[in-house]
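Dear Dr. L.,

I hope this message finds you well. Following up on our conversation about the binding site, I have prepared a predicted three-dimensional model of the protein together with beta-D-glucopyranose. For your records, I am including the exact sequence and ligand specification that went into the calculation, followed by the structure tokens. Please feel free to forward this to your student if that is useful.
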Amino acid sequence: MHKQHPENEQQFGYFDDQKCEYVITNPHTPTPWINYLGNDGFYGLISNTGGGYCFYRDPKFRRLTRYRYNSVPVDNGGRYFYLKSEGQTWSATGRPVHTELDQYSCHHGMGYSRFKASKNAISSQLTSFIPLNTKAEVHQLELKNDGDTTKAVELFSFIEWCLWNAEDDGANFQRNLSTGEVEVEGSTIYHKTEYRERRNHYAFYSVNHPIDGFETDRETFLGPYRGFENPIAVERGKTANSVARGWSPIASHHIKCELAPGESKTLVFVLGYCEVEATNKWQAPNIINKQPAQTLQAQFDTSEKVTAELLKLKNYWQNLLGKFVVKSPDERFDRALNIWNQYQNMVTFNLSRSASFYESGIGRGMGFRDSNQDTIGFAHMVPEKVKERILDLSSTQKTDGSAYHQYQPLTKKGNANIGGNFNDDPMWMVLSTANYIKETGDFSILDEMVIYDGQEQATHNHFDHLERAFNHVVNNLGPHGLPLIGRADWNDCLNLNCFSEDPNESYQTTQRGASDVAESVMIAGQFVLYGQEFVEICQRIGKNELASKCQTHVDQMRSSVEQHGWDGEWYIRAYDANGDKVGSNDNAEGKIFIESQGFCAMAGIGSEQGKPLQAMNSVEKHLSSDFGIMLNQPAFTRYSKYLGEISSYPPGYKENAGIFCHNNPWITISEAMLGRPEKAFEYYSKITPAFLQDVQKLHKTEPYVYSQMIAGNDSANPGEAKNSWLTGTAAWNYYAATQYILGIRPDYDGLLIDPCILPSWKSVAITREFRGANYQIELRNPSGLKKGKVELTIDGVKVAGNLIDPKRFGAKHTVVAEIVA
Ligand code: BGC
Ligand code: NOJ
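The resulting structure of the complex is given below.
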């Protein structure tokens, strides 16, 4: 266990690696430090003080509980447990009651969070999780009398219902305040707003214990003009058994108990979601069919059942995390790769950019580019889900090969309001598909029949979708033979065809004029890299003619970049709608951008002339900072309608010269490909939370997960992070560290071993599951080389080349990979 104790006021917690937990020891973290519960459709967000909400599949359309974004105080709304004894009131999660606890800790683990609190010799332990395959949050609360006299303790639970559609819930009050409906039966409070009309689902909040009272009307519970910190019902120690009609329905149970010295009591609360067949909705007029809820409650009505479910969840995670385990000389590296990075990969895969403390769950569906990229951090864990996701994405593709920028998880349909024309989108599907096949060897994904957007029946296979993605680039080239950028490429904020002077319009959805001039060098690099990948796929399935046709396009693109995409010391970023360069030394601001350096270097464009190396040196010189690599320099200080949103951000933030972590791994990979392990490791570790424990206060966001953005040198607070959790950084940095630093890289024919580790690392041990086999790999670097040839010994026998062929070496094997000159 790595205990960095929070006597240091910079420090709010520490890692407990044995338990795969991050332990928060101070409730007053700089921002809410959250965890995610659930991994298969039913999800909850839970902060270190119990704030957050839950939803079923779609955080916009099926939100169960209410949460107030950007509220005062922050983090308002959650699953609250008020405890009251001897005239004092406190919260089992440290908030919302202001009472300072005698002891507090929050343990965020893999799919569960545990809160320990104690006050006046009453201790509590709350364990919150969503059991596997369950549409419910379980909150198990254990109360214990640690004192030597008998104590009376009162408990009030609290959640506030969201009226399902989270957007409407926060906006349409003229209707909302009249629709709320509940039912109460025994110890269960049912939320049935809109059930009488078109909804065939309801929610409930129950406890496995008789109750002494309840409240379902918010104002009755809180009292007029009061906040969550001192509800009148708790103050009075009395509930009125209110039944909400309209206004704001809530659920609060009141339980009184007496605990003898040393005695404890455990209660199980279940917050669940039920769907009912349209023909079977009612058990009596206006009385909902409670059967499904009772079945769900019965699954968790004893502590033993709950403990068993928690164990199942732990085993599930242990098994997933066991597929790739590294033991290096740096425990921070191991901690990141073995635990938190993989965990974050699962969360980003599940939720894309929809619901976090920075993403409100109402704005964005699943991003086409984001979701494709997220699969590269996840394919080794649950490949079946990755296959399904890729095919879902594929089915939203348009017949011309372009993509809707987003789709809704509930309908799996492209989001027409946001539309398309982000011209990098299609080619990410080549990356995700190639990566999936390399991991699994499953070429059958290419044969799956997949509809195009809006079609009833699939007439083409997934391979055809990839071919159209490829051709979409070929069919949309600009004057320099470079890909047209459309609305934007990976950088959503480089809006070269928007020309917006109207503050009321969206940079993301406005595109003016025929966009047949502005071009992206980043997409060019992406096309060379993944176009080459597509060529290889064609070859591997025997489409040789197509392969050579496509090769011509890839080669052509290479030479277009060499001719028009090189600025002398680095790759240009783009050409704007006037045909002027963006990201060139000729520009006054924004002379150099990271994205084209990363993609053109990874694609090896101009490597005969040493361009990738030169570009990396320029990145180091102009973009590297103490906290990571900035997106561009110099920052834009003036708004330019020819550049769009990028120049709308103050210097140093977000896409305007912030450290936009997602793209840093592209540089890490490029450095590893060039054989420069120190640079690769430096860039990797600068943004990796496990390495940032000493700057928790500055960094502000959770010290166990990546954030989308870290403020750059031009900002007021370089090093301050924002937008934690849902970022492509997770998948990409994992991919960079495992496949390029450690160099354990799945390929079509097997597992390649091609490390670029720190020369000081003499030995690294890795466990890797791959296509049903298990490899115990030791990387050895006795001469401290930066990069070299790899000599493989499998089960004591020397093998030619650096590929582990799973056809020869199935089952379990010991591999020694020695780096030699
Ligand atoms: C942000 C981008 C984001 C885009 C789309 C912009 O304001 O800066 O990072 O991708 O909005 O929502
Ligand atoms: C966040 C978006 O989710 C992602 O798709 C985009 O590439 C980055 N912002 C950069 O603009």
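In brief: Residues 1-5 have pLDDT under 50 and may be disordered.

With kind regards,
A. P.
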